[in-house]
């Protein structure tokens, strides 16, 4: 059947039904769901080879075939003689999988671990898996990985792959990274936010610790810049590439990339050429199998059904960051004999990964980037053309276990003239609140003096500090407050940490802990295959707490708990068991931190208003106000925003005057996701820098709220919240003064 993952929108299903029937008869294979929640658990079996390369050669022969093997000794010499080395090599030459092992073989692991950072989780996990196989050990023993909320290492671990965020957090606990003898910062050219911060921190660590080796791998174009940043350190080039990749450009620009990609994939499929296909799409919506293959049925696609009916089977596997990890792991499993695998991915599969058997890459030429959007005052994912560097990485996913082809669905001239050479570093385009918090807690007083490769724009930094100030993490002078210090302890977004911290005083920390854990995993609800869709929506409504999605989550968790954490119960209620187990793990980990930090666990029992107020205390800056039937506008910006159709508040006939939202998602409209009704007074009380209460016909009276307004929120109709803006200017002015910046 078709996998319907994370189905968000309530849509007409008759079309789905037809499509489903069509494909079930045609070429999709069934996937068996297994019941575990750690990525490592999904990859327990040895990866089965699918290419000739992997089938015919032993693992040792495969290792020795790689370009890096020819320069192994030279590489080790240069590392021995220098503390920092930049390593450059073609995609697939062996940087990620071999460097760690060479260092291990050369004795570096006798006095510490060899760590290797990756910008993405799926890369950290899958590469660790491969290296554990090459070293003939079980994943989690000699070779392990760590990602947020998932530590798959042990006492025995000597080679550790991890996300750059994990190493950054480790440097909080252990500023000299004493557990490591070498750190490889892989895929540095991706310039993720965490990598950029690590650059500055690790450079200092190396200057303090002469026994630590730092190796930075990069694509060719950035290597000089990196070498310069670290003080003209040597650049080592790995010559040669594993297998050739033919690059084929589109002759004309494509109007619809989804349609063009489907067409291209099917052409490859029907051509009879051997090998699996990897398609890059910008976002999850493009990938969700339904949309992707719907476009195939459009008349302009020119695909004749008879052709497809005679074609061999094709297994379509999506991968994107919000997909539960067991489903992500499926892309690495070998398809049954005679079935061609077609992976449809976002840029999470763009770097580092080797999927054995991929011979064809289809590149739509777009990606989604997180960019600070001043209109909504926060980061938003938006679709942009990729950079040349992205394009090369994508092409590099073919040609790893055999010669490959890359079909670019854009013209050569667009590649040369319209695409940036490299993507703008994340640090220059996103909210830095977490980084500011982290650096402040490391004692970096003046962030503008921190050694950044490309410093973030001043305004960006100040805006992030402002957001932290709103949450009470920074004081008026921009210094860390005790709350801010506590917030750093949690591997969460600042607002979520804040919510956990205030929940203790408000007497609902046990409940908020569950809510925060629920918000930290991909979607827990699923909509099953066609016939029972309506039924699943009805079941879902059973959990709904009409005034709050947050409380709905709490309700689901509590009921699951009351049913002894049963997976049967989950299945009966269209809830992902694995996601719920993950929630339970996350809860346990966060609970440990709370205990360490002496934050008591208390439940407010059945008085759930307290919980709503607590949520309001951390999210008052994301509030919306009712305007007309079912329409909301953001209280601070006046921007219209909509309830998401999956919200418990959607279409329930209950439309509270004020709500706060967890996040905004921008698809066709601006949707607020995960929403809770709040009282107007709470907003004024908890977010006094933004709101005060204005009584009809009277002037503003913040301190003079009539008692009955406290008790009867129906009275809110007479109260309008007034949005203040002036304090922001004052705060920023002060910061500019403290940091000796020019006035605006
Ligand atoms: N799971 C796997 N199955 C088969 N071969 C693999 C696997 N993982 C790696 N390889 C082989 O090892 C080679 C090197 O992989 P590695 O990830 O170390 O390259 P890399 O230089 O880091 O590439 P990139 O720049 O794309 O990250 C691949 O080209 C492939 O031949
Ligand atoms: Mg690599």
From TrEMBL:
GO terms for cellular component: spliceosomal complex. It catalyses: ATP + H2O = ADP + phosphate + H(+). The keyword Nucleotide-binding applies. Keywords: ATP-binding, Helicase, Hydrolase, mRNA processing, mRNA splicing, Nucleotide-binding, Spliceosome. It is an enzyme of class 3 (hydrolase). One of its GO terms (molecular function) is RNA binding. This is RNA helicase. Gene3D superfamilies: 1.20.120.1080, P-loop containing nucleotide triphosphate hydrolases. Belongs to the DEAD box helicase family. DEAH subfamily. PRP16 sub-subfamily. Residues 244-443 form the Helicase C-terminal domain. Its EC number is 3.6.4.13. SUPFAM superfamilies: P-loop containing nucleoside triphosphate hydrolases. GO terms for biological process: mRNA splicing, via spliceosome. Residues 76-239 form the Helicase ATP-binding domain.
């Amino acid at each position: 059947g078709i996998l319907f993952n994370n189905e968000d929108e309530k849509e007409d299903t008759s079309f789905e039904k037809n499509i489903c029937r069509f494909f079930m008869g045609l070429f999709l294979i069934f996937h068996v769901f297994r019941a575990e929640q750690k990525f490592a658990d999904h990859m327990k079996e040895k990866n089965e080879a699918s290419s000739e390369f992997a089938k015919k050669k032993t693992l040792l022969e495969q290792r020795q075939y790689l370009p890096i093997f020819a320069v192994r000794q030279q590489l080790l010499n240069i590392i021995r003689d220098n503390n920092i080395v930049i390593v450059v090599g073609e995609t697939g030459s062996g940087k990620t999988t071999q460097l760690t092992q060479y260092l291990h073989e050369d004795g570096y692991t006798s006095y510490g671990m060899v760590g290797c950072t990756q910008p993405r989780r799926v890369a950290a996990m899958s590469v660790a898996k491969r290296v554990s196989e090459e070293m003939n050990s079980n994943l989690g023993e000699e070779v392990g990985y760590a990602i947020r909320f998932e530590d798959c290492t042990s006492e025995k671990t000597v080679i550790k792959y991890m996300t750059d965020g994990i190493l950054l957090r480790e440097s909080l606990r252990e500023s000299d990274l004493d557990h490591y003898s070498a750190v490889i910062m892989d895929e540095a050219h991706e310039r993720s936010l965490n990598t950029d911060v690590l650059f500055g921190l690790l450079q200092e660590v190396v200057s303090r610790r002469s026994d630590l080796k730092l190796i930075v791998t990069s694509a060719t174009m950035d290597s000089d810049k990196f070498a310069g940043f670290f003080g003209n350190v040597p650049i080592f080039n790995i010559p040669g590439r594993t297998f050739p990749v033919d690059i084929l450009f589109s002759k004309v620009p494509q109007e619809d990339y989804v349609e063009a990609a489907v067409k291209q994939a099917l052409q490859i499929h029907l051509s009879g050429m051997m090998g699996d296909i990897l398609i890059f799409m910008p976002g999850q919506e493009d990938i969700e199998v339904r949309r992707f293959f719907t476009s195939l049925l459009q008349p302009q696609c020119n695909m004749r059904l008879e052709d497809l009916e005679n074609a061999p089977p094709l297994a379509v596997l999506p991968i994107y960051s919000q997909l539960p990890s067991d489903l992500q792991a499926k892309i690495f499993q070998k398809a049954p004999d005679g079935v061609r695998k077609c992976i449809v991915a976002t840029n999470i599969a763009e770097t580092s990964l080797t999927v054995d058997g991929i011979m064809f890459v289809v590149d739509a030429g777009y990606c989604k980037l997180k960019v600070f959007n001043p209109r909504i005052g926060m980061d938003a994912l938006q679709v942009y053309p990729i950079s040349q560097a992205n394009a090369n990485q994508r092409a590099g996913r073919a040609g790893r276990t055999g010669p490959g082809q890359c079909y670019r669905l854009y013209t050569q001239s667009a590649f040369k003239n319209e695409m940036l050479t490299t993507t703008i570093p994340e640090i220059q385009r996103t909210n830095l609140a977490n980084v500011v918090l982290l650096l402040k807690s490391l004692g970096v007083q003046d962030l503008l003096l921190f050694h950044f490769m490309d410093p973030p724009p001043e305004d960006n930094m100040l805006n992030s500090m402002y957001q932290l100030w709103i949450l009470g993490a920074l004081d008026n002078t921009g210094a860390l407050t005790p709350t801010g210090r506590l917030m750093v302890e949690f591997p969460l977004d600042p607002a979520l940490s804040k919510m956990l911290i205030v929940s203790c005083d408000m007497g609902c920390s046990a409940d908020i802990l569950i809510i925060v854990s629920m918000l930290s995993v991909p979607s827990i609800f699923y909509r099953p295959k066609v016939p029972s869709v309506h039924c699943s929506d009805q079941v879902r409504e059973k959990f709904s707490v009409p005034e709050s999605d947050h409380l709905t989550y709490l309700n689901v968790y509590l009921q699951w708990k009351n049913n002894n954490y049963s997976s049967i119960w989950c299945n009966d209620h269209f809830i992902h068991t694995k996601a719920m187990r993950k929630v339970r793990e996350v809860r346990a980990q966060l609970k440990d931190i709370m205990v360490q930090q002496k934050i008591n666990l208390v439940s407010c029992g059945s008085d759930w208003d307290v919980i709503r107020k607590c949520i309001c205390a951390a999210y008052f800056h994301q509030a919306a106000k009712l305007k007309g039937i079912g329409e909301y506008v953001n209280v601070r910006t006046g921007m219209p925003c909509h309830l998401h159709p999956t919200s418990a508040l959607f279409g329930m006939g209950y439309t509270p005057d004020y709500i706060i939202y967890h996040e905004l998602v921008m698809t066709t409209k601006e949707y607020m996701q995960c929403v809770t009704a709040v009282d107007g007074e709470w907003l004024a009380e908890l977010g006094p820098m933004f709101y005060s209460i204005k009584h009809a016909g009277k002037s503003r009276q913040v301190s003079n709220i009539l008692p009955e307004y406290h008790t009867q929120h129906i009275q809110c109709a007479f109260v309008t919240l007034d949005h203040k803006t002036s304090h922001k200017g004052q705060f920023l002015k002060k910061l500019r003064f403290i940091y000796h910046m020019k006035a605006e």
